[in-house]
Automatic annotation (TrEMBL), chain A:
<feature type="transmembrane region" description="Helical">
    <location>
        <begin position="243"/>
        <end position="269"/>
    </location>
</feature>
<feature type="domain" description="ABC transmembrane type-1">
    <location>
        <begin position="112"/>
        <end position="312"/>
    </location>
</feature>
<dbReference type="GO" id="GO:0005886">
    <property type="term" value="C:plasma membrane"/>
</dbReference>
<dbReference type="InterPro" id="IPR035906">
    <property type="entry name" value="MetI-like_sf"/>
</dbReference>
<keyword id="KW-0813">Transport</keyword>
<feature type="transmembrane region" description="Helical">
    <location>
        <begin position="150"/>
        <end position="177"/>
    </location>
</feature>
<dbReference type="Pfam" id="PF00528">
    <property type="entry name" value="BPD_transp_1"/>
</dbReference>
<keyword id="KW-1003">Cell membrane</keyword>
<keyword id="KW-1133">Transmembrane helix</keyword>
TrEMBL record, chain B:
<dbReference type="InterPro" id="IPR039424">
    <property type="entry name" value="SBP_5"/>
</dbReference>
<feature type="signal peptide">
    <location>
        <begin position="1"/>
        <end position="20"/>
    </location>
</feature>
<dbReference type="InterPro" id="IPR000914">
    <property type="entry name" value="SBP_5_dom"/>
</dbReference>
<dbReference type="GO" id="GO:0015833">
    <property type="term" value="P:peptide transport"/>
</dbReference>
<dbReference type="GO" id="GO:0042597">
    <property type="term" value="C:periplasmic space"/>
</dbReference>
<dbReference type="GO" id="GO:1904680">
    <property type="term" value="F:peptide transmembrane transporter activity"/>
</dbReference>
<keyword id="KW-0813">Transport</keyword>
<keyword id="KW-0732">Signal</keyword>
<protein>
    <submittedName>
        <fullName>Peptide/nickel transport system substrate-binding protein</fullName>
    </submittedName>
</protein>
Amino acid sequence: MSTLTLTRRRGLAVVGWLGPVARRLGSGLAVLWAAATAAYVSLLLVPGDTVDVLIGDGLDTPERRAQIIAEWGLDRSALRQYGDYLARLLHGDLGHSYILQRGVGDILASQIGPTVRLALTAALFGSVLALALALTTAGRRPWLGGLAGLSELVAVSVPPFLIGILLLAVFSFTLGWFPVSGDQGPVSLVLPAVALSLPICGVLGQVLREGLERALEEPFAVTARSRGITERRLVARHALRHALLPAVTLTGWFTGTLLGGAIIVESVFGRPGLGQVTLSAVTGKDMPVVMAVVLLSALVYVTVSTIVDLTYLAIDPRLRSSR
Amino acid sequence: MKARWGVLTLAGALALTACGAQTQAPAAAVGGSGGDGGSLTWAVETQPITFNPQQWGQNKARLLVHNQFDSLIARGRNGEFLPWLATSWEVSKDGLTYTFKLRDDVTFHDGEKFDAASVKANLDQFLVPGYNAAVAAIQLRNFGRAEATGTHTLKVTLKAPDGLFLDFLSSPYAGQVSPKSLKNAKDLKAGGVDVVGTGPFILDRFTPGQEVHYRRNPNYDWPPTGSAHQGPAYLSEVTYRFLPEAAVRVGALTSGQVQVIEGVPATEIGLIKADPRLRLETSLNSGSAFSYYFNVSHAPFDDRRVRKAFRDAVDVDTVLDSVYQGTAKRAWSIIGQGSPQFYDASLENTFGGNPARANKLLDEAGWDRRDAEGFRVKDGRRLTVRTVASAPFVRDRRDILAQAVQAAVKQSSGIDFQVRLVDQGTAQKAYDDDQYEVFENSRGDTDAGAALNLILPKGAAINRTHFESAELDGLLTKASASSDTAERRELYAKVQKLVADEALILPLYVPADQVAYGAGVTGLTFEPVSGTPNSAYDIRTGT
């Protein structure tokens, strides 16, 4: 094969990717725009004067009112206000919390680190464990699969709150292996990440195992076996690719579970993070912060599902040319 | 046989690790007690909304305030006022002028001098619109002006006599903030490292959701009268960790990861008492008892007979026993037993817990039929009363308590008591729209009169009973203006009697603070009047 044909094939591959990528990025942006608009509309729909809503429980002085009117352009037409708001968001300006008297961007930035660390670690734990569980139990003796299925069911149905307390009782209070509280180094991350990852592991493990078992009954598996391939190789090299697709579809749900679960897990383990910020913003009627959290969740969601969609393309080449 | 050995080995291993944990724990609990006085970790239930003492509003945050800030006046065991940053004071005959002599050796954490000008700056700060509208309108409603008549002499003029003014000056609200930080603080209302005081500890680190850390103020030499020692605090540092889950707090204590916990749930009290390495102390809070207030503005509680019937339908002792396992102190009046100077003990056993009388009263009031589910009805309407509780303020398992009351009134008298746990906005809306019949509340004011002033008079800030009585308002006004404790006691006895006669409330229990700590901790005390845990000033770890 000459260099020329190689280059041309690569070029073709890039062209094949271009359309789907552009489409997905476009729809991602549309979702973000919709989320921003929904947040804005909800601000207008909350009963009471918009200035009152924005101040929340914060300092209420004539100067501050004037500042809010200027900041949000509340003396201009509704359409102009909305346009200004979108323009500010495009510049990365999330507004100002009048209760905490700080920029919302600052508040989220200072708290996002611990939550991201927790969520990523939990995602990693959950996927690795699910994968290991599925690979070791799929297509083996039925009782093994049954046992795995049962533990997955337990992992899914026990709330992270209870899992957290149980983990603490055993590994922190009794054995003393892990500290109870805070964001102090990798050791303090283990238990909260496990608590958050178990429900994910449960669902993911189930889907993966069923996918694997279905794939192992497909004609291609029979063909492969007839060529004398070992069962382990068959699972790892051929069946896994088929089982992965439905599992990847779950990633959106996965993200939601991580974000929602983080609020509870952060509170049980006394960890800093976005969960605490969200909780106190909602209870304290801190509207600018609530709006920013809505946007941030939408952004995370869009990013993850875009990556997932693109991963599909990588896993299954047929999707690239299908549309 | 094999299996049994396995189980035995496992049990043995668990027992060993359990022993290991037990032998380790005391060592950890006394750990850190070096020559410098040691360090302490204290797990608390609630993260303060603000560290600015003048914005303080959560009784549960009180134990943090006086680490960082000193007030002008302290309280003694019998409620008397004692010198602190103010060494003495004189009140003019007409009760309008207060002259304070201040300490001249006090310095703020930022190096600013504490003097009459700084106290004036602190008092004037409350007049800034919106700084703390509630305090300006209530505790300081009679405040006229403050003037520095000398470097360390301050004259305060009131617009009207106010028996609660000194109580205000002994509260966290009078925590003295450096005038420099009043002007320049980045987050004045939220407080934190740049809103500084003169206290025995310096707040140097706050991680929201995790902990707040204080280090010793080496120059401290002005503790309130009544402290166990003089000079700087014993501890070189103290960390308060926020652990909202009770089971987690208890586990952290028994495993020696923290040395003190606040907020011990009733279910764990037995366990802690049985553990020789741990101590438990309880202190009743001052202020009003936790009570159900009846909204008299519409049916069915506009009828006094129905209010009385609800009070009689509940056997409070049984309910408290089942929810708090005998650890809660039953309340008998709107003022709790934690405010002994004003509590009227003659009300005890004069009402309540009488289902027969409750049923008779309801029959008389016309609620004499029952529907298919056994609830009483009148004119086709069920005898339904609703409570809305704002979730962030639910403590002490009050949601469970409400369910127990719900079961009790249904069973004994066929009352349909509906409990809704909602967010603060929804609760506020229900109050604004008068869509509730029961309002749950307790207040931890050091002067119980402050609580009564907020709840009882016509148009008061949280008069959610909508009860109006010229006689009641007169008694309260008279009591507020007086600084004669005996006279106030007599007036408040009449108030309590009136509230009981009108069956305006169902008193349930007296809120208390429980603190548990490892054997190595000493010097942990409660504030004599508020009943909440003291600052860490007198605490030591180790022997």
